[in-house]
## 1
Amino acid sequence: MFKLACGDVMPGCAARFENRDRGAMLADVAGHAASAHGITDITPEILAAVESKIAFVA
Ligand SMILES: [Zn+2]
């Protein structure tokens, strides 16, 4: 299971994501980033920051 705490990328945000499909989780994160943080343009830098925080728990 892939897991991500949004607060690890955006301090103060309590949103958490988990999904067994990494791509699907990233899609959820992208939707959250747009609706909660106004980030509609996921730059390579943002994507790298997010991916560096993804944990995998079997
Ligand atoms: Zn967030």
## 2
Amino acid sequence: MSSEASMNPQLGVRSEAVTDEYLQYLKQMNVMHCFVMFSNEQSDYEQVNRILDRIRRAGLTVDDAGNSFLYKHLSIHLGLSDRDRWIEKYNELNRILGNAGVPVGYIGNSRVSHTGYFADQYTHGALGRTVRMEEILQHPPVADPPIGEEELWEHFRYLLRAALPVAKEAGMRLALHPSDPPYPMYEGYPSLIYNSDCFRKAIRMADEIEPGVLGIKFCCGCWLEGGRQFGDILTDLREFVRAGRVLTVHFRNVSSPLPDFTETLAEDGYFDMMKIMRVLVEEKYDHAIYPDHVFRTDSRTGGDLAAFAYAVGYLKGLMNAARSEIEG
Ligand SMILES: [Mn+2]
């Protein structure tokens, strides 16, 4: 099987949970790529470099990294009075990561809201992340008074002006994820990204400031949650991969489009994930691909290690099947 221009299955590493055993777990599944989510306590120069070195000494490649507390910070996205302080902390981490050779960081307030984790007909008795949009719309506002979509985009432009030159200088690109669920407005503030046109708008805006730096976390889960309201997942994926904008793929399936859905195993949702894999192989997508969310389990039912092992194994099975089919 040809190995040129191949995508890289990856799993996540939390900075506070880097152990020899966890790194061995990744290696024994032949998952040689990862992303690193840094805690606040471990986002300084010394610790970031120490943790990256340890992961790399185990033979793993770090594709992307960030600190979700910083890049999702509401002061930045709602334009609160202390935003410059948070943007500077966020930029400082990107400088550290970029200078340490991590090619992709994160940007944007990709909130994740849900109704809860429930066992239903889609989960085989496991607890799956469930959204009932009517319930989400009852959540109390985070922004008070609520802000509008135009205002949110102005805050995003302000962030881009500060963030893109720093990322470029550090040799880094920044990946943007949709709001999850991808619905225009809830919890008192609008979603920046709730369909594929929002991504096109963000890329146009970013390219006026620093061309080519902004990219996409192509979250198949969010695309499928939004359904036709979000866009045609296969044509959007082809378009954004061809344009060189997809920096990572979140490979995840759901029971149905909004207003209500439950996250499922890749083989159980309403979409045929093999179709997505074929597009990635046909377009020679060569960045990271990640299973994203898994069922909530505990140690008695295998825990996260089992859930992610299953998900990444299934993903690699589809990847190899698609490569065999298309590349021969
Ligand atoms: Mn995602």
## 3
Amino acid sequence: MQEISTTKRWVLAAEQLTKRYGAGCSYCETLTGPERGNRCPVCGTVTACANINFALEQGEILGIVGESGSGKSTLMQMVNLVVSAESGALWYREVDTAGQLVDEPMNLLTLDRYARRTFRNQRLGIVYQRPELGLNMKFTVGGNVAEKLLLAGWRNVGQIRQRASELMHLTELPTERIDDDPHMFSGGMLQRVQISKALSSNPAVLLLDEVTSGLDVSVQARVLDLIKHIQWELKITMLLVSHDLGVIKQLAGRTMVMKNGWVVESGLTDQILEDPQHPYTQLLVSSVL
Ligand SMILES: Nc1ncnc2c1ncn2[C@@H]1O[C@H](COP(=O)(O)OP(=O)(O)O)[C@@H](O)[C@H]1O
Ligand SMILES: [Mg+2]
Ligand SMILES: [Zn+2]
């Protein structure tokens, strides 16, 4: 809990989170690592995330950057309580808008399946690169927002529709398109629909996994502006994953750099950009300059 105790207003903190795909063997530990790769040559087990620590502060955007396969999405899905970590802890603290602790920290990994789902529906929101992962493509925009709100315990149809309309306004979608199907929207608009759905239950933490990676540069810039605007307006805490340091640079105050499942560097984004310590980070930085 060392890093965790040094930050005062954390809402979510990972402690030694680890996820392997495969049975593992006694060689995994020595034959995998940031410089050796994530796949054990003896047993084939992939260490997707190894001993990940971070503390997410109220209202901040923490960036996670790394090449494809470095474990970013696995980490996201562990935080989203969909992929179960095989070891480690994931602490959550409910805080009010002033950052005051409302409840004692709880380890989300100790929750049973039902409690995990409830937590995910009420306190988390996630946006994916591919809209069909975040949206039900057979439901309208309003229907998608309703789906999340019903799972979060909302029951009043009028209030749900009102909420959908508010969120479309926030994400700069024409509210008269509330009854349109997702496949009638462009790529950039679909990301706005996903963001609307993810934000609907007023989550404590918004998870963004490569949300602009599939978009044209100009569309990407406008979606990034929207995310900035939402963070400024709602002071929502975000975990932002991208393989593109340029995206991280624009949004994240602090950044973790992942390679082969390991965090090889972390700190203030500005400092990482100005003075990268790890050779891998230096390579990433030189590619955005
Ligand atoms: N369900 C799975 N089964 C086996 N290996 C997986 C699974 N999901 C991810 N992996 C492996 O874990 C590693 C990390 O993947 P991922 O978290 O998707 O990385 P990123 O999002 O950074 O591209 C990769 O080597 C990937 O092949
Ligand atoms: Mg990924
Ligand atoms: Zn092994």
## 4
Amino acid sequence: MAERRFTLAARTGAAFALRKGERLRVINSHGTQVVDTWAFASPGAFASPGAFASPGAFASSGEYLSLEHCREVLQKLFFETGDLLLTNLYRPILTVTQDTSPGRHDTLIAACSRLMYERAGRGPDHANCADNLAGALAAHGLRPAVTPSPWNLFMQAPVEPGGHIDFVRPLAKPGDYVELRAEMDCLLAFSACPDDVYPTNGGDGTPRDVEIHLI
Ligand SMILES: [Zn+2]
């Protein structure tokens, strides 16, 4: 596949179809930006073809990257180079093939949503990762019934010994990237997180664009 490069603008989402074996890089152009990441199995990749009759059904009730299953099988909170990531059906969907950042990408925190920003006093119209995912999937004719837990690339939410979760700014340098390889035909979706409530998008709380390269 010829390399294809996309800029994911600050506060927006997009989804990319990958065939098994293809790779993609998520590049933190400014070093400060968190990228919520999801992966959904393509209809043809289902263990029981035909179980999901319509394209929309697979996103609403199908198979997707499940952080809960990954944490169980990998026995770790933070995924790193070489890790095989699994779906909610325990099937490999992605491999982490490279990570030039300091890692420790959050696996615990839900995608930001309209409700999160309303709770924070930001009003009902704040851009958010949950709506970005829905829009990105809609562009592929898909409709999620729920928002799976995102793998929050570059997000630093360290867990202290007593169990407290902190929120700190990303540790990435400009140009750091995470490279993923598809282990089945799948749809990868990303949101350049619009969060300006927590310090997750850098000390100035300013969402910025990132690069997605299909290689
Ligand atoms: Zn977000």
